Amino acid sequence: MSATDAYASGDLPRAAKASLRVARRDARARRFGALSPAEVAVESRRLVAHLLAGLNERGVWSVAAYLPVGSEPGVVPGPPMLSGAPRVGLPDALREAGIGVLLPLMRPDRDLDWAPYEGPEALVRGPHDLWEPDPETALGVDAVRVVDLVVVPALAVGRDGSRLGRGAGCYDRALARVGPQIPLVALVYDDEVLDSVPIEPHDRPVTHVVTPSVGWIAVGTDSSRRHRL
Ligand SMILES: Nc1nc2c(c(=O)[nH]1)N(C=O)[C@@H](CNc1ccc(C(=O)N[C@@H](CCC(=O)O)C(=O)O)cc1)CN2
Ligand SMILES: Nc1ncnc2c1ncn2[C@@H]1O[C@H](COP(=O)(O)OP(=O)(O)OP(=O)(O)O)[C@@H](O)[C@H]1O
């Protein structure tokens, strides 16, 4: 296949994404390994505080979010609590601020279902080391349409709004249902804000990034930025 054919068929951005994903995942794991649990906790608290301040300024009352795990930004380090419940930072902080929170449940078809967050004790072990709401409480894939803002996981984000995810396409499917006026906010570490990351036609650009040190950064093209708050 020629390079032009490869590009037209989508193979080039797909391959570029795959190698960047490996590099970013390694970099994240290395960085995480070099920090103590206390340092991770401090960074997570700063990230969550920035996120909350910006939600408050924007008058946001409901969000679709997620529970950071492993080396993801916002994770609360340490084993599960004595009760067996996971350590929860971000969803509790949102709920305590009076914000309604939906959490995702990964479906076998790699789409995302959504359920209200009702506290750490109500979470159950999901696939891939994730903690998820009880599937009995799930509202369906369309529940994400009603929130004021979506908090999105990412391995890296470009200043042009391009986002690199884990590669399952879960968020691509979910974000395809979200209206164009809804802010899409990726949580990343400071060194994960790049000029751009490879994209494919199905990728929805994010509108903002929040990092532990800088806080909120509006991303996207100049024209996309002119049309929003
Ligand atoms: N905290 C958190 N929750 C989330 C996501 C996320 O990225 N972070 N998701 C975002 O989509 C959804 C779950 N999506 C996932 C998609 C793929 C893999 C997966 O393939 N995991 C591999 C390891 C490689 C990796 O970490 O990516 C595995 O477990 O073998 C895991 C979760 C919904 N909930
Ligand atoms: N709206 C969609 N409907 C159906 N399939 C989709 C959709 N969006 C993406 N996909 C599929 O998901 C695959 C993975 O997409 P991609 O590499 O962009 O994932 P990602 O953005 O890194 O992951 P995520 O969205 O889970 O964070 C794509 O190859 C594509 O076939």
Structural commentary:
This protein has 229 residues and is α/β, with parallel strands linked by helices. Helices cover 30% and strands 20% of the residues. The chain has 6 helices and 12 strands. The strands form 3 sheets. A 7-stranded mixed sheet has the order 3-2-1-6-9-11-12. Strand 4 (123-125) and strand 5 (131-133) form a beta hairpin. The longest helix is centred in the N-terminal third of the chain and has 23 residues, at 11-33. 34% of the residues are buried. Residues 66-69, 72, 104, 106, 112, 128, 130, 153, 165-166, 168, 170-171 line the site of the ligand Nc1nc2c(c(=O)[nH]1)N(C=O)[C@@H](CNc1ccc(C(=O)N[C@@H](CCC(=O)O)C(=O)O)cc1)CN2.
Question: Gist?
Answer:
With 229 residues, the chain is an alpha/beta fold.
List keywords for this structure.
12 strands, 229 residues, binds adenosine-5'-triphosphate, binds the ligand Nc1nc2c(c(=O)[nH]1)N(C=O)[C@@H](CNc1ccc(C(=O)N[C@@H](CCC(=O)O)C(=O)O)cc1)CN2, alpha/beta, three-stranded mixed sheet
Topology:
Layout: H1 3-8, H2 11-33, H3 37-57, E1 62-64, H4 90-96, E2 100-106, E3 112-116, E4 123-125, E5 131-133, E6 149-153, E7 156-158, E8 163-164, H5 170-175, E9 184-187, E10 193-194, E11 208-211, E12 215-218, H6 222-226
Parallel strand pairs: 1-2, 1-6, 6-9, 7-10, 9-11
Antiparallel strand pairs: 2-3, 4-5, 7-8, 11-12
The structure holds ligand FFO and adenosine-5'-triphosphate (ATP).
Which series of helices and strands comes N to C?
Answer: HHHEHEEEEEEEHEEEEH
Strand order, main sheet: write it out: 3-2-1-6-9-11-12
Alpha-beta content class = alpha/beta
Say how many strands there are: 12
How large a portion of the residues is in β-strands, by DSSP E? 15-25%
Q: Give the uncertain stretches in residue-range form.
A: none
- How much helix is in the residues? 25-40%
Shape: globular
Mean pLDDT: 93
Distance between the termini: 44 Å
Rg over alpha carbons: 17 Å
Task: Give every kind of bound small molecule, once each.
Answer: ligand FFO, adenosine-5'-triphosphate
What's the total helix number? 6
Largest sheet: 7 strands, mixed
